[in-house]
Amino acid sequence: MNDLNILHGTVVRPEGCFAGGVEVKDGTIVRVLREGEAPGPARKTVDAGNMLVFPGMIDSHVHIRGGRLEHREDFASGTMAAAAGGVTTVMEMPVTLPPASRPGDFINREKEVKARAYVDYALYGGAGADNLEEIPLLAQAGAVGYKTFLMPPVPGREKEFFGLCSQTQEILTQVMEQVAKTGLMLAVHSELNQYVEEETRLRMERGENGLKAFCRSRPVEAETEAVKWVIAAALKTGCRASICHVSTPEAAALIQEARAQGADIHGETCPQYLLFNEDTAERAGVFARMKPPLRDAGRMARLRELYREGALEITGSDHAPYLREEKLRNGQDIWRTFDGVPGLELSLPLLVTAAERGELTYESIARNTAENTARLFGLPQKGRIEEGRDADLVLVERLKLPQPLDIGTLFTKSRDSAELYRDLPLRCRVAAAYVRGRRVFADGAITGEQGWGKFVSPV
User: Fold this and answer.
1) What is the pLDDT of residue 459?
2) Beta-strand (E) ranges in 139-238?
3) pLDDT confidence of 154, banded at 50, 70, 90?
4) How many CB atoms lie within 10 A of CB 73?
5) pTM listed for this prediction
6) How many other C-beta atoms are found inside a 10 Å radius of the C-beta of residue 314?
7) Contact, 29 vs 72, CB < 8 A?
8) Strands 51-55 vs 57-62: parallel, antiparallel or unpaired
9) How many C-beta atoms lie closer than 10 Å to residue 68's C-beta?
10) Interatomic CA distance for residues 337 and 210, integer angstroms
């Protein structure tokens, strides 16, 4: 007897959607049905009529942080937010106190997450000039990949960035040589400071302020020239690389060209770069400051086309929670606030809403939020609605009338700083989420348990 049958839904796969359902036993998908096929007996049956059945999202870029920074987010609140947003696996970045750049710190971090997680989780290790010899040891500890920045540490946050910075081409090549030995992916924050510092100084001297001034202070070249660094080092070392949070179609084109040359390099982007631009987000002020910044409307539209076409293969929220009072510590001074927005809970609803508007497709969302991520990071049990895979499933209800988003209902501790998303008209809602067959969220409430989340690592 099955533990769970989900019937009469629209099953979403990258190659197409079809009416049908899923049978689950012992946390695994045992059968995918087409409508009209007789299901086997089950202890529980869910009628998914009028709902989309998506594979659980694997969020490739999350900064929950926890530990000494848990006033902003801890692994309970963060993974509750994930469950509510249809994210069944979070891939947590190593930037925290202390960062996960040494094996001991990595192992302690895994223990912290394990005690609190409602959904499954993977952890990146840090890779930079400070910890070259420890990079291979992090793979042995179970790292899903590595993270490095091509910029110096954020002033005042140097301790969080130990083992995480590759500020010259030479150091980046050395880091990639070490990562290549492991066969894992190096996720790279690709911006070069030399293109940002002078622009920022000039705009501040002229008294410019506001979101658009910040966006223009970080020109497209800061991203594209950094991507060129990564491509050159990847071709030289054979290292696998992911360009994090791609914000420009120019960078996406460079990644495509590099793959054609034989580089094992891939592009990740975030919903905010597909759905917002420097004009539409300007009302949010400091609450829309992020790195890289939002771009102009034309670039946003082209990036969305590339995402739909599959040129950008991976999706992360770049969830970076800060409390409202932290973001407003210096009022609306765009130059003196924290970078990042809370997005973990909203990525899938925003993307499906874009599909309802005809801007994306269900298939591209399933491909870029789940299947590709599982394949590229070595998580074969995840990412697809298929027999033998983990029963990580999300039921998404399409709404007859758009409903404005009430950020006060979000599970993240940093809900009050989600101004970018306030009152956005959503055309869908996550009705239920299942992690390995167990329902962790349903009808606006968390139904799972802390500690259910499982540590996953590449095989």
Assistant:
1) 77
2) 145-149, 185-189
3) confident
4) 26
5) 0.98
6) 27
7) no
8) unpaired
9) 11
10) 11
